[in-house]
Amino acid sequence: MELNKHSFPVNITLEDAISKFQKEFDKKGHKVKIQKDQMHLNITPYWVCFYDIDSNKDGNYQHISGQIALNSLTNKVENEFLKLLNVSTPQVIDALDVSFERVEIRVKKSLINQAEAQETITKVLSSKYNVDKKNISLSGFEEMYIPIWRIDIESHELYMDAVISKINNFHIINKKSRSNSELFSEMVEEIKTPKGLAKYIIEFVINVFKAITSVFMLFIKNWQIVLIIILAVFIGFLIFF
Predict the structure, then answer these.
(1) Is-contact 140 74, C-beta < 8 A?
(2) 233 vs 238: CA distance, rounded Å
(3) pTM, whole model, 2 decimals?
(4) Are residues 214 and 141 in the same domain?
(5) Among the three residues 132, 152, 172, which one is the final residue of a domain in this structure?
(6) Are residues 108 and 8 in the same domain?
(7) Of all helices (H) and strands (E), which one includes residue 204?
């Protein structure tokens, strides 16, 4: 697919993306099976620039510098994507690899021009560092396209960068509690094999030992109260019986 954009490369394949999404759902107890046609790849534009801030409040001079990234679709700062610059350098990519033609690719058109991005970034920095806009200098403006895997499933709209797969919003997947029947079925499946049975027995013994230890430690810490209770029961027995 033709791209001709200054973009990060797509390093995470469709199969890798499906596998990573699937593992997150499995880990949190969701019974879903992700299909290829549920996935799509967004090529999302960002404005990235450097900033320098000089402030002099009450005779205290301070210089602050850094880099900032603005999503050109939402007009919101999303600095987490700056992490990608530590592992890869955006290049003008003429076309995406043909192996990605099996999935829908959506090249997003930038909705924010450079002047608008500069105004937004200046406002954000002014508010964050409590400085006047005139003390903020922006430089090195560049429009970069970031490939992001997306999936809409079980009322979740999940994303994951297609460069290193580390930038994502997997935290929004709620953890499902399993019913007693599901837990029992899982236990039965586990103990069908010698290895699973041995693991179950070891865990059972460890849990019993922990329970006995907890009771013993509770007795040690509260031996006076326990002794009083025993004496009270004994005295009551003598009086009434």
Answers:
(1) no
(2) 9
(3) 0.69
(4) no
(5) 172
(6) yes
(7) helix 194-221
The DSSP letter of residue 233 is H
Please give the radius of gyration of the chain, using alpha carbons only, rounded to the nearest integer: 29
Backbone angles phi, psi at 190, to 5 degrees: -70, -40
**Summary mean pLDDT of the chain:** 85
Whether 28 and 93 share a structural domain: yes
Contact 129, 55 (CB under 8 A): yes
* Tokens representing residue 19 in the block: 């596998």
Q: Is the dihedral of CA 24, 28, 29, 30 positive or negative?
A: negative
- pLDDT tens sequence across 161-214: 999 999 999 998 888 765 556 556 666 766 778 777 777 788 888 888 787 877
Which residue segment(s) compose the domain that 188 sits in? 180-240
> Does residue 109 sit in the same domain as residue 200?
no
Question: 23 φ, ψ to 5°?
Answer: -60, -35
pLDDT of residue 64: 94
Q: Which comes out higher in pLDDT, residue 89 or 183?
A: 89
Half-sphere exposure of 208 (CA within 13 A, CB side): 6
Do residues 93 and 184 both lie within one domain?
A: no
Phi, psi (deg, nearest 5) at residue 68: -140, 150
Distance CA 241, CA 238 (A): 5
| In a shared domain, residues 154 and 217 | no
Mean pLDDT of 95-122: 84
Cβ partners under 8 Å of residue 111, min gap 6:
72, 73, 75
State how far the Cα of 159 lies from the Cα of 73, in Å rounded to an integer.
15
In the chain, how many domains are there? Answer: 2
Q: How far apart are CA 121 and CA 75, in angstroms?
A: 9
